Every structure is written in structure tokens, then in C-alpha cells.
Amino acid sequence: MKGHLVKNVRWPEKDHGLANRAYVYFVAGKRLPIEGCTMQGDIGMDQHSIRNIKPNPQNEDEVVPKQWIEENFLNCYSPASTMAKDLNMDGNHVSYMRAPEQNHHAVTKGYADTKLSLLGGSMQEGIGMTGNRISHLGEPVQSNDAVRLSYANEFYQKRDGTNWMTGPLHGGFQVIRVGNPREEQDAVNLQTLQTSATSVLEQATAAANTAVSDAITNHSNILN
Fold first, then answer.
1. Hey, CA dihedral for 23, 24, 27, 29, is it positive or negative?
2. Helix (H/G/I), strand (E/B), else coil: 154
């Protein structure tokens, strides 16, 4: 143009049309200037992107890039997302968790309440041990407390008689339902004792009667 002007330009009707200065001044209050400004309304992006955002936002009201979000926030929809540091709940709750499937999964209070606390508690149903043992029991205090095998062997007599008394019985109680003795050191029940005593008495009576009869017979022979 060599310093000359284009004059009498029409008001542009299409995007590629030439605009005059009046048009530029007219729309300047409605366009976003390159040096920035304050928006008076929303921007309809129509599925387009905003690119080349500052990587590290300084203020809470700034737009942040996708990379900054991925580095600083946990993706709740990605199973590969992991925490880089501990999560401080500051007294708040984590809710609506599903039942745990692995040992390292967090559990809900409802799930934990179905387990017996290490501090003790009351079972609501029986425990199927499936051949396993309960070990390291303490000394029983109540009559319904479980006991160790060593405790039972020390204080109780087996039904099959395979263990032996290590001291006398005290307390004035009776030993009942004693079976018939098989050896000389076996205890006897009252029935056996009475039967034996009756037998001995009968034998003694018979022997005495025989002795008296023999004595009478001998005396008669002497007199004759």
C-alpha cells in the first residue's frame, strides 16, 4: 500500500471479510483482548480445548492442566491409582465401602463387628474348628471356662483310668459307682464288701459248727 489507506470499507459480513476501524472499536468491548481481561459471561467451548495452561497454579480460582490433576489427585475410577502419601481424614469418614476381598483391603464397621475383638467379647454362634486347636489357654476361673489338657490331667481322673492319682482325695465326698474289684489293690463297693462279709461269716459259721460237731463226736468216743 506504500503508506496509503483503504477507504470506504463496508461492514464485514463474513469471517474472512475486511473490517474497518469502526467495526473493530465496536466489537472491542465484546471480544477477549490478547493482553487479558475479566470475563462478563461464560465461554461456550463447544467441545474445544484450552491449551498451554500454566503447569503450576498459584491461586485457588485458576484453571489447572490435566497433568497437575493427575499428579495431585486420586482417580476414583482407575483401579491403578495409588496414594503417594497417607490420607489424613481429620475426623471425617470414608463411607459406602464394599466388602473386603484381600487382606490389605479396608473394612467397614459392619464387617469388623462380625469378628471377635482381640480384647475379648461374646460369641453369638459356635466356632467350627475343623480339626484345629485352641492353644495357650489361661487358668480357668469360672465353671464354664475352657481348660488345658495339662489342667485336666492334673485335677481330673480319666474315664478309662489311664492316669493315676498323685495325692489323697479330700472334702468328705464319696467315690460312687465303683466297679467290681479285679486285683487286690482295687477299691471295693459296698455291695461287694457286704457280699464278701456275708460269705466270710457263713464260712466261719460253717467251720464253727463243724468244729463243735467234731468236738461232741470226740467227747462221745472218749466216754465210750
1. negative
2. helix
The pLDDT mean for the chain works out to 79
Kind plus residue range of the DSSP H or E element containing 190: helix 190-223
Say which residue the cell 497437575 belongs to: 68
Q: Which residue in 106, 99, 61 sits closest to 83, CA to CA? A: 106
Nine-digit cell at 116? Answer: 471377635
Given a cut of 70, whether residue 220 has pLDDT beyond it is yes
| Cα 148 to Cα 118, 153, 160, distances in angstroms | 20, 9, 19
Question: How many residues appear in the chain?
Answer: 224
Q: What pLDDT is stored for residue 159 in this prediction? A: 61
Per-residue pLDDT reduced to its tens digit, 152-192: 877 776 666 666 666 666 667 777 777 888 887 877 887 87
User: What is the per-residue pLDDT across 134-147, written as a single tens digit (0 to 9) for each?
Assistant: 888 888 898 888 88
CA pair distance 153, 151, nearest whole angstrom: 5
Q: Are 192 and 180 contacting, i.e. CB atoms less than 8 angstroms apart?
A: yes
Contact 35, 46 (CB under 8 A): no
Closest CA to 25 of 37, 13, 38, 11: 11
66-82 pLDDT, tens digit each: 888 888 887 777 777 77
